[in-house]
Amino acid sequence: MHPLKAIYWPREKAFLIADFHLGKGAHFRRNGIMVHSAIDLVNLKNLNMLLKCFPAEKVIFLGDLFHSRYNQEWLSFEKYLKQLPHIAFHLVMGNHDILPESIYAASNLIVHKEYYQMDPFYFSHKPLEEFPEGLFNLAGHIHPGVMLKGGAKQYMRLPCFYFTENQGIMPAFGEFTGLSMLKPKKKDKVFVPVDKSVICL
Predict the structure, then answer these.
(1) Residue 72 has pLDDT above 80, yes or no
(2) Residue 23 confidence class, pLDDT cut points 50, 70, 90
(3) What pTM does this model have?
(4) Which of 44, 172, 184, 195 is the most exposed place for a label (fewest CB within 10 A)?
C-alpha cells in the first residue's frame, strides 16, 4: 500500500488504483460550482509520482476513472497514456465510466466491462457479494473512510484501505472525492495513509 492511496503488486509490476474521478472538477465547474482547475492536475501528478517510484508494466484502474462526459481533461489524459506505451493500462468499468466505447477504443486502455481476474485477485469496481471461491475480491466505489477520535474531543476523518478475510476496498485515488465512513468489525483490518506512510489501526 502506498500513501498516495494506491497498491503496488511487485510480482506483476502493477499499480492498482480505484476511483480516479478524472474530470470531476470540470464537471462541477460546468454546472456552476466553483472548483479549482488544478484538481485534475494533482491527480495526474500523483499518478506520475507512483510510476517513478517503482518499475511498472501495468496500471489497473478499478472503475470510475473518468467522472463524467467527454471534455478537455480526457484529451489530456489520453495524450498522457500515449506517452507511456511500455505500460498496459487496464480499466474495470465503473458507474461513472460512461464515455462511448469508441473513445475508450481510441485510447491505450484495455477495458474490462465487469471484472478482471488475475489470480489470486478478482478485480471489480463495486465490492461483490459473490465471486469465485479461492480468489480475493479487490474493489473501490465505496470511498472508505474511518474516524479517528482524540481524548479532547478532537476527531479526524481519513480515507482508508479496508480489508476483510477475502475482500479489500481501496480508498479513492482522486483528490476531490467524499468518504463513506465504515465501522470495522473485530477481524477486519484497516490501514490509513498518513503523510509519507501507511499505518495499521
Answers:
(1) no
(2) confident
(3) 0.90
(4) 195
